[in-house]
Amino acid sequence: MTNKEVLKIIERASKEKATELTLYNKRLSSLPPEICQLFNLTRLDLSNNQLSSLPPAFIQLSNLRELDLSNNQLSSLPPEIGQLSNLRELSLHNNQMCSLPSEISQLSNLTRLFLHENQLSSLPQEIGQLSSLKELFLHKNQLGSLPPEIGQLSNLTRLDLDNNQLSSLPLELFQLSNLTELDLYNNQLCSLPPEIGQLSHLSFLRLDGNQLGSLPLEIGQLSHLTRLQLRYNQLTSLPPEIGQLSNLTFLYLDHNQLGSLPPEIGQLSNLKGLSLHENQLSSLPREICQLSNLRELSFFENPQLAWPPIQIVQHGTQAILTYLRETLEDK
Questions:
Q1: Would the CA dihedral through 320, 323, 329, 330 be positive or negative?
Q2: What are 251's strand-pairing partners?
Q3: What is the CATH classification number for the domain harbouring 234?
Q4: Tally of structural domains, the chain
Q5: Among 75, 245, 296, 298, which residue's beta carbon has the most beta carbons within 10 A?
Q6: What pLDDT, in 10s, does the model give residues 83-117?
Q7: Residue 256 sits in which domain range?
Q8: 3-state secondary structure of 103
């Protein structure tokens, strides 16, 4: 789209005192100064362009509540971004961001911040001042650590950190008592601290693709957890406390080194799916038959599995549960 065409769109928006403007996918490499005169805008979509910077006068759009700058070529934000104090949602994903200005902390009304698919290697400690933030998306960056101040985001409910380079987590992270979803897929975590049990409202925990050799006993304190994903780790056993996850519906343990399962797994009364592909299991605990809601039990590629017998396994989940139930009754 030519500059002339863009100016026409802006001029029409100005005459109509528009509150929303979409310039999605217009091949814009820069913004005309006139856009900063649209004082009534509350929503501005500039995604899928070729923007590499924002004009300083951009801060005049003080009524903006939603700003979408995703899929551009931004490598940084001007410090003035902090003056857009009415922003509720800021989308910056799929850019070339290497850092964030400390002034981002001034966006005190921000509830959703999309920063995934950038080149961030660290976060400013001031990010902890985003007191209204509820959702923070940081996946597919280069984060090697998190600032302790992240624990100050007391309203945060969702935190996506998958595909980074995290080898440890600050203990302050586990102060996020309102967190319901935590995604740590494909990082470099070797262990989880006992403090994970403090995330009392967590319902979704994704830890696939790390280097976990064990789980802390406190994992059993996550009483609201419904989905736990632990594929592609180095787990050799599970703590008996796993049986305390009374609301768990899906448990994924594929591609680990599990030699056995604790009998307490039979206490997961709401479990619907249990996946155990590619482990070192030699047998299944009889107590699995107590999982009355189980619909999917899969454990192919366990070469040492001797019990239940292969002729039972071949008939699927219900046949296995029936067989285990019969053997449990015979004990």
A1: negative
A2: 228, 274
A3: 3.80.10.10
A4: 1
A5: 245
A6: 999 999 999 999 999 999 999 999 999 999 999 99
A7: 3-330
A8: helix
